[in-house]
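User: Reviewer 2 asked us to show a designed sequence for the structure in our supplementary figure. I'm pasting the structure tokens here. Could you produce the per-position amino acids so we can include them in the response letter?
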């Protein structure tokens, strides 16, 4: 599974749908139902783009892979 997720070729890389259908992924999986959960998103999380820009510019390129 990991090898298929990390496949550099987008034509042969496993999709999210493929991952969700894989028996290994489905073992013990219970889909989330957002309507059943009380979700709170702090507005502060969306208040500043400077932190994201700083992180992206100061993080080595290989970190994202």
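Assistant: Here is a per-position design you can include in the supplement:
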């Amino acid at each position: 599974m990991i090898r298929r997720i990390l496949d550099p070729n987008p034509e042969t890389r496993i999709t999210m749908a493929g991952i969700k259908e894989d028996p290994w992924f489905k073992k013990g999986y219970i889909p989330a139902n957002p309507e059943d959960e009380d979700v709170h998103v702090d507005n502060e999380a969306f208040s500043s783009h400077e932190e994201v820009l700083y992180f992206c510019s100061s993080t080595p390129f290989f970190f994202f892979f």
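For the response letter, you might also mention the following. Helices lie at 2-5, 16-21, 23-26, 50-58. The mean pLDDT is 76.
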